[in-house]
Batch of 2 targets.
Target 1
Amino acid sequence: MHLIKSPAEPSAKSLKERSQIPATRRWVVKVGSALLTADGKGIDNVAIAGWVKQIAALRAVGVEVVLVSSGAVAEGMSRLGWAERPTSIHDLQAAAAVGQMGLVQTWESCFQEHGLHTAQILLTHDDLSDRKRYLNSRSALLSLLALGVVPVVNENDTVVTDEIRFGDNDTLGALVTNLVEAEVLVILTDQKGMFDSDPRGNSEAKLISQARAFDRSLEGMASGTSGGLGRGGMATKVKAAQLAARSGAATVIVGGRERAVLERVFAAEDLGTLLVADKALFAARKQWLAGHLQMRGELVLDDGAVRALRDETVSLLPVGVAAVSGAFSRGEMVLCVDSKGERVACGLVNYDSSESKRIVGVASSEIETLLGYVDEPELIHRDNMVVY
Ligand code: GLU
């Protein structure tokens, strides 16, 4: 096994070769439910032992690995003898609680064979949208890596409902990639990679070897459906790659059943689909902001404000906002759209929704007259905003 690229080399910009995955020091490896549970038949010990052996080999050459393991619901269903994924949220939560036991037991005992410890990290969206908890999770994960432990992350499915969840573990994997500043996100899936059309319905479908994460044409190619055991389809994997690209990470979507898959990806073999980061990196705080998945409200901006946000480094003032919708508190995340409803930016708002409605379209000097006080002259400060 050899390094994809020596850490001293600068990261390359063109897409010609696989060797352009950035210098690898830290990986996040996400394993999907269908793979982990042999398509729902129960935990696939042999497959897991295979990935563990490869991760141990990566660790031995100095690559730190965080695992994002799906499969709690799928394994819970299998243990409880349920043939179909339950629709009731409480049944899903129960299945996840049962299945998570099996998952961590298996990862831990397989890693023990290689003298490595694992640690269970269960996260919710709130853990990553609260700045303090975000930084706490980051410190804990980095400490575990420094101790040589392999963190095994999953969503804390037992305490979340649909409204407050990450949605799927591809997204969670990308957010963890941002969190620990990993250079590579590997998404192990039950397909060979990403195809230019759905291979389940089209035998002519071609595997995409390499593309830019933000290439618009990918979004049209990726189907949104998953196999039913987990939650993510190819569309969520492309979105995850885009999220991971915000911290400069490359994403590899690859068949988890390929022989020695991780070692071959590490050796820069042309396997699966490599989606490279092709946009300027976000600073750490902006990555955290961009990782917020739930918008509490929407601000419709006038054309002047849209231009100013896109062309200059300015904050959003009330005068540039034409309309406000949603119910949000001060400090919550809102989406800013243009008059056609296209996304322009998102950010943490300085006034709650009823205050915002009263001050839209007016000069900041009027805020005090209208509200009786003034907290800040801007509705969203530039430091608290991400422009798409
Ligand atoms: N967290 C879910 C589980 O462990 C999986 C979500 C997904 O498949 O993306 O069952």
Target 2
Amino acid sequence: MGSAVTAATPPAAAARAAALRQTIAEHNFRYYVQDAPTVSDAEFDGLFRELQALEHEYPSLATADSPTQRVGGAPAAAFDGVAHRVPMLSLANAFSDDEAAAFDRRVREALGVDLVLYAVEPKFDGLAVSLVYEDGVFTVGATRGDGSSGENVTANLRTVRAIPLRLPIDAPPLLEVRGEVLMLKRDFESLNAAQAAKGDKLFANPRNAAAGSLRQLDARISASRRLTFFAYGIGSVDWGGRDAAPPTQDALLRHLAELRLPVTRERAVVLGLPGLLGYYRAIGARRGALPFDIDGVVYKVNDFAQQERLGFVSRAPRFALAHKFPAEETATEVVAIDVQVGRTGALTPVARLKPVFVGGVTVTNATLHNEDEVRRKDVQVGDTVIVRRAGDVIPEVVRVVPGTRAAGSRPFAMPTACPECGSAVVRLPDEVIARCSGGLVCPAQRKQSLLHFAGRRAMDVEGLGEKLADQLVDAGIVRTPADLYRLDAASLAALERMADRSAANVIAAIEASRETTLARFIFALGIRHVGEATARDLARHFGSLEALIDAGEAALLEVRDVGPVLAESIARFFAEPHNRDVIGQLRAAGVRWRDEAPQRSPPGRFAGLAFVLTGTLPSLSRDQAKALIEAEGGKVAGSVSAKTNYLVAGIDAGSKLTRARELGISILDEDGLRQLLAPPRD
Ligand code: IVH
């Protein structure tokens, strides 16, 4: 702003603008903080427009703390980082009365007193922020981030009407206010109604809506969402040498309220454990009727001198505790059990539920985690089940309500073919997770496998990152890695945000990737458990892809470091016709590699023998024993089966030893193993 403009601003206009700013701030405070407006919306709008007009005429009057600046400016490219002057710590959690009692006991013992005065507050379910006021003016607002530094969201926070842009005249020179940004339940409902009307995505709960609204690079969007704020503490502060520092949490909050910062009325000061639990229960009973979501209560030793004596443990104060409400549970009916395929091919059974309201959101799905879990809980379609939802956690089925099973209902069975692509579903012996074996062709896994295929250590297609992979797969342009080699620069350049130049670069990188090594190609296929080193071993051992494809599990087990799990995974991958098709297509597209002269390591004396280790050996660690066995070509498996040749048992051997005895398997101690390993005498 040039001085010419300032010089041209008549003092009367400046005085009127200052008066309007103060009046508007006052009305904002009555409306947003006290919830008790004293003027009509029309009167308020009149004042606001008068100020806007003045600032328009005399731009030097449009200061950063003017209420007209709450609308958000031009979008930012990214948030800057803000280092917190005092770290933003977290709170220790308690979930039971016993844990609350233990907290009170620890505090009393550490302070050497019989009874403690506590400040008790709701635990707001929103986002922690820090607001820095310098000489009473709001200058920097930041998210908590990792506690040491967060994101600079000043522009977004300015749009929150409950946050004063300027504090009253008697504010300290520096005051960092800590508190929580939230969306009131009623504002959340109207936001979601508006989102639904526009066909936009709905928010799961007020917390997510608040987070999504605050972390908008375009502050105008934040401005359009109704957020609010409650202060619950301070960070760094300079009380200005006066005798103003409040001595207790309660006095601090009263002081913040005098400075026109919003402080909840739902707080109290209580005495001892009965006071804590009384508050917990009282507010728990009114939880649903509160205008905002809370997920528990916070207990704080009221006296700051006592707080200081208690100090901190790691990242949490010893003087405070979050006593959380239990996860909410409710009953509903299982309409179906579907199986979802994740990006790594993991199959997860999901219960489709009759919609039910629990823990603040309507739940229609709940995870059943895995096949064993479904069996253990014995969940069947048509059953009435208890569903639990805690905080942000995915809702889960807790148990079946007995006696609700319909006649003719049947137990759940994991499909044998992937619901997405029809490839075989595989569950390896030691794993609880069943997986789709159609790595390269399964739509659910396409992005993942494409990224892996193009990765630097695989086919090394520079420029094919997550964004491009998403676009290519979403647009249906690339279904399998072989499709990459059919792309041209024109179809790439047609994608959003893809300049001609970068399209040409990606095409060049794809071209260059056609020539590769056998090891890289094997790694690029993304066979489960096959890392770079194994891919190299496989290439060296078999020399050609054909030999690898034709190798059965037994031949695979001869490769250095390949155990039963890996051998089965590799054999399964190549047994899947879809995967062989893609390999054929890649070849047809001109992907080439040099075959190698097979270098089979000479079979060791343990070649073809399977060992299992159990218990603690007197001198060898488990890894050392395993390495010795494998160096001789033996395999070490995790569990005893009819295929096991030797069990090596140490102290405290348990069920594996019993099982080996039942099966009549040779049992060795460490000495026995060493004798077997000793070079043969001739
Ligand atoms: S005091 C030293 N008071 O809970 C910790 N925190 O784990 C100072 N929270 O994300 C925090 N309501 O944002 C405090 N009345 C309250 C709170 C509260 C919610 C959040 C806080 C932080 C988490 C602490």
